[in-house]
Amino acid sequence: MKTNWWKKATIYQIYPRSFQDTNDDGIGDLQGIIQHLDYLEFLGIDAVWLSPIYQSPNEDNGYDISDYQVINPEYGTMNDVETLIKKAKKRNIRIIMDLVVNHTSSEHPWFQSAVHDPKSEFHNFYIWRKSYDEKPPNDLQSNFGGSAWTYVPDLGEYYFHLHAKEQPDLNWENPSMRQEIYRMMNFWIEKGVGGFRLDVIDLIGKEPDQSITKNGPKLHELLQEMNRCTFGNYDLVTVGETWGATPEIAQLYSNESRDELSMVFQFEHINLDKQVGKRKWDLKELDPKELHQVFSKWQTELADKGWNSLFWNNHDLPRIISRWGNDQEYRVLSGKMLAIYLYFLQGTPYLYQGEEIGMINYPVESIDEVNDIESRRMYDERINSGYTKEEIIASINVKGRDNGRHPMHWDDSKQAGFTTSIPWLPVGDSSEINVATALEDQTSLFYTYKKLIQFRKKFPVITEGSFESISTGDTAILAYIRRYKEETLLVVVNFSNESDHFLLDSTQQIKEILIHNYEKEISQTLLPYESYAVLLK
Ligand code: NOJ
């Protein structure tokens, strides 16, 4: 029976490489996750989304899979995964697997056969085009820079890849390939996983010859087939990563009657601090009002027609407090503001490891300190086109993916309790920002998140209520009202480091203060980042 358990749930994302090392190799592992299940249970989350743990040459840290049914030995064994699933279940925590099926690693046996034997059945698992004039079939570019076509001289053919050339795209036109993927998904479903996060799923319906990469004409048909052949028969959650989704498209994915996915990650808010039509590295200051408009639009347009995911962070994004909060004087206050704004919206929140303790970006001085393939490729490309090193490093420090990948801070010891050896990526300064300190302090960001996660289960207005944006004039104060049956919830946040006024006279009507990030009375003046959520009479 389908319970839609995920509507009241909060999902915690773990980047296994950086969560907890238990065998002193400087790399996080599955035993490390098992070790912290009590912590996750105490935080109150309902499910863990695990970034990929499968066998992989790690060109893109596991998003290049060379065997979907073998565990990367750096992380442990299949036995460890089974133990994790079982022990998590005892604590009512489900394990969600990352499903990377737009592409495999070039080391996957399918691709190895495809490349070495054009007659093999696996050749057609990938996308090949002949070359007649030694030029790529067209100008399509890979997301990590350079052409999306790589030439294999022995075959006289190009293969297609929307990411690195080590990540060849699977050919979703091929029914045999699709059946193999469904078989693999059912293997994981039988292991008892709680669902899937589907990596760049909006790319699988591509039509490279028409230069269509995302939202291709067959995309939704393919997802309906996948649903029928795999997760559709179980009470699982599915969330698609869809950079190209508009609210209309998100309805197609997540409207229950269409039997596709539970929800998608959309990135409209995430793109608000880049220049229009440019890449994420081309920075622009965030306008909080614009952010509020975008959230309001998604809240309104998916109400009763789909389901939102709610997130500030993941392993591809910089830390939100450094990005849109204040990682100096107001680190905790701005962290609470961001949490309060997001957690009273309709949707399923995703909390990324370390976000609950307010981890911040990790600036670097040179490209030698950078691990991430995307930043490194961009660096080479921009150096070649005349940018200065300083300009490029500045944008990496704001937007680079490593910012969110530095190891988790468990305590204030030398390697933050992550490892006893040299971590694969350095740990930041954990003297103040760490789990042990957060747990001891009832006013820490951790307890704000814990409370918010509980509220989402307790107050149906959060999951069911209507949404109304409140106009606050020309200020950085963002406000909204949610209504459901007798309950009216007002959320007000000051998205800036300056005091301002909130003129709606709601202060007289407060029935109950659910959360407030200052220890003072609520008044019409909001101090820097002051935020609250209240039930109204
Ligand atoms: C999105 C993933 O989140 C990212 O980390 C990865 O590089 C690309 N997809 C390619 O799989």
Mean pLDDT: 97
Low-confidence stretches: none
Find the structural class using helix and strand composition: alpha/beta
Give the quaternary arrangement of the chains. Answer: single chain
Radius of gyration: 23 Å
Query: How many strands, which pairing sense, and closed or not: the largest β-sheet?
Result: 8 strands, parallel
What small molecules accompany the polymer chains? 1-deoxynojirimycin
Using DSSP, what is the number of strands?
20
Keywords:
537 residues; eight-stranded parallel β-sheet; binds 1-deoxynojirimycin; Immunoglobulin-like; alpha/beta; globular; five-stranded antiparallel β-sheet; single chain
Topology:
Blueprint lengths: L10 E4 L15 H6 L1 H7 L3 E4 L3 E2 L11 E5 L6 H13 L3 E6 L9 H8 L11 E3 L18 E4 L4 E4 L14 H16 L4 E4 L20 H11 L7 E5 L5 H8 L8 E3 L22 H15 L6 E2 L9 H5 L6 H13 L4 E5 L20 H12 L4 H11 L35 H6 L4 H14 L1 H5 L1 E5 L6 E8 L2 E8 L5 E2 L8 E7 L8 E2 L4 E6 L1
The structure holds 1-deoxynojirimycin.
Give a nutshell description of this structure.
This protein is α/β, with parallel strands linked by helices. The protein is built from 15 helices and 20 strands. Among the domains are: about 200-305, no CATH class; about 460-535, Golgi alpha-mannosidase II (Immunoglobulin-like).
